[in-house]
Sequence to fold (739 residues):
Amino acid sequence: MRSVRLDSPPDGGPELRANIVQLRDLLGQRFPRVRMTVPEKLPARPSFATGLPQIDGLLQGGLLKGAITELVSAQGSGALVLRRILRIAGQNRQRIALIDGSDGFDPCALNNGLMAGLLWVRCSDAAQALKATDLVLRDGNMSLVVLDLHQNPSTQLRKIPGTTWYRLQRIIEPTPTAFLAITSHAMVTSAEVRLSLASQFTLKSWEQREDELVSRIKFVLQSRACGTTEVPEPIAVEAS
Amino acid sequence: MYAVIYIPDFFLHSVLRAEPALEKQPVVLIDEHEKKPIVLQLTVAARALGISEGMTSTQALARCPALAGQIKNRSASQEKAATEALLQCAYSFSPGIESTADGVCTLDLAGLGLNSGGASSIEPETSQCDELGNEMLQRLALLHLPAQVGIAENPWLALLAARAATPCRVVTNSTEFLHALPVESIGASFETLSILKKWGIHSLGQFVALGKEPLSTRLGPEALALHERATANSTRPLKLIRQPDSFHESIEFEHEIETIEPLLFVLRRFLEQLLVRLEMMYWVAQELRLQLRFESGEPYDKTFRIPAPTSNVETLFRMLYTHLETLRTEHPIVALGLSAKPGRAINHQFGLFESVLRDPNHFHETLARLTALVGSDRVGTPVLEESHRPDAFRMERVSLEELPEVQPENPPLPRGPALYRFRPPVAVTVTVADQRPTSLESSVFQGTIRQARGPWRSSGQWWDNERWNRDEWDVQASNGRLYRICHQTEGWFVEGVYD
Fold:
C-alpha cells in the first residue's frame, strides 16, 4: 500500500496539487469503476409534462420522476391547478392517482372520458392519505401520484412525522412515477422541488375560463436541491 | 416406439405430493373405509423397519411406534389430481396418451423424431430415448411423482421395462430383456403360475424355451397368449384420451386449521404444483378458485380473476394472501381446494403514453389493499351520473384495460375557480337582507359577506322521494375567500370553498 501525504500548506500550491493527483490515481486504481471526474453537464432527468407552461417551464420539462415535488397553495388555487393537470393528463390518456386527503375533489367539472385513467382515493384524514400514498407509490403503475393535503386541518398535518416524507422519497426514487404533494404550507422536508402558488380569486374570476385563470397564476420556484438533501436558499423566479 | 410411465405405490405418492418431506420417512397408507384397515402401500423407510403390506395399522404401530402420526388415509381427490398431473405431463411429450391404469400411462412416441439413429436404421438411437426418459423423470419430479420409465417397441414390453427400470430403461434387444425377467411378470393366472413353478420354470426365457405348441396343448389358450407376450410379438392399439383440462389440487386436513400460516404453507405448494402443470401445457393462470370447507360443513368459495394471466408464483400467491389476510371465519378449516383456469399470456408493447398498466396484477393487489384501508366506495374512478343534482357521481372499478381514446373537447372549458367540496356540507347560519346573504356563522367561517352572486335555482327528481330543490350562492367572505353556499329545505349549508 502506497502512502500519500495529505499534510500541505494551507494556501495550497504545487505540492497540494501533486498530492491530490496522486490520491486520485490511487483511488482510481483501487476503485476502477468509480467515476473520478464530474461531467460538465448532467444528463436530463425524466419528467412528467403537466401541460402547464409555468410548471413545465420552471422545472425544465415537468415534474421530476422519482422525486417529490411540493406545490404550496397557501392562499388558494391549488384545486384549480390540480383540475387543470387532471384535464390535460386525461386528454393524453395518462394514468393518475389522486390521494384526496379530505375527500374534497369535485369531479363534476371534468367529464367521464377525461377521468377514465384516474384512480381517486377518498381519504378521511391526512394519516390515512399517507398510508394510501405509500401503497400507490409502491405500486409503480401510475405516471403521476398527487397527494392533496392543502385543505386538511393543520392539527392533522402537524402529526405527520418528518421521517414519513423521507420514507416516501426512498419509495419513489427507483420508480418512473412523478409525485406531487399539494400542501397549504411548506412541510415536505424531502421535496426536491418546491413551487408555491400566489393567486387569489374574486367573484369576477367567473368571467374567465379555466385555462385563462391558470395562466394568470404565479408560480414561484422556492427550492431545488439536485442530488443533495440540503435545501438552498430560495430562488425567486416568477413565471408569467 | 412406446413409452410407459409407471409410478410405484401410486396411491401413497398421490397423498405425499402435498407433503413431499415425508417421502423419506416411514409412512404407510390405509383405507379407512375398509372394515379392517390394512397397510396398502408404504415408503421404503417403513419397509426397512419391518412393516409390510397387509399388516393392520396396530401391527404396523407395534413394529414402529414413530409411525403414530404417519398413517395416511387414501384420498380419492388427491389420486384424481395426481392422475391428471401424470397425464398432463405425458401429454407434454406426446399427443397420443393412454391412461393404462392407476399410476400407469402409455405414450405413443411415433412422430417424435426418434428414428434418427442412422441413415439406414429405422431403430431410434438409444441415447435419444434415454434423454427422453430422463426428461420425463425430471418433469415428474417437479410434480413430486417418483416414477419409472420404460421405452420399447410395443406397449406391453414398455410396461415390463418400466416396472424393471431403475428409473429409466430402454429396451433395444427384446429377447434378451424378456428372458431375464421372472415368470411372474408375464401376468399369468395364479393356477398357471403355480403349475409353471412346479415345472421349475422361473424365468421367461425358460418359459419361451418350452415352445408354443407344447404349452398350448398342456395349459390351454391362456398359455398361447402368454407365449405371445413373452416373445414380444403381441401389440395392441392404445385407447387414446384427450389431455385433462382440469387443474385442481385439494387436501382434507387431518387436523383442523385455525391460523393462516399452515393454510398458506399448503396453498403455496398447491399453487406451485398447478403452475408447473400449466407451464407444461404452455398455459398460464387466468383465474384462481379457492375452496375451503369449515368444520361446520359450510363451504367457502372465492374466485380470483387475474387481470394479466400469469404463471408467476409470487404474484398469484400475494393475491391469495391479501385476501386470506382479511378473512375471518367462525369455524376452523378442514379441507382446502385450489383450481386454476388456464389461459394464454397477454403481451403488451408499452407506448409513449402509458395507457396500459405495467403490472396489472400488482395494481389489482394495490386496489385490494386500498379498499381494505379506506373502504370499497372510496376507491376507484369517478363516473358522473346523468343528473343535474350537485355532486352526482358514482365510484367504479378502475379500468385495467387500455384507456379509450378521448374525444376532443366539444363543451367549452368551465369558467371560474375550482370547487373544493366539504363532504358532507357544513351547516351554516346565514343572515339574509334584501333576499341576499349578508353574513355567515359556521365552523368554516364566521363573518360578513363582501359580495354574493346568485341565487342559482335548481331542482330535480320531483317525481320520486329523491326530489331536491335548492338555491345556490357564490359568496366572497370578508377574509377574501370564495365559498359556495346553498339553501335547501333542511336549511343553509356551505358546500365548499373555491380554490
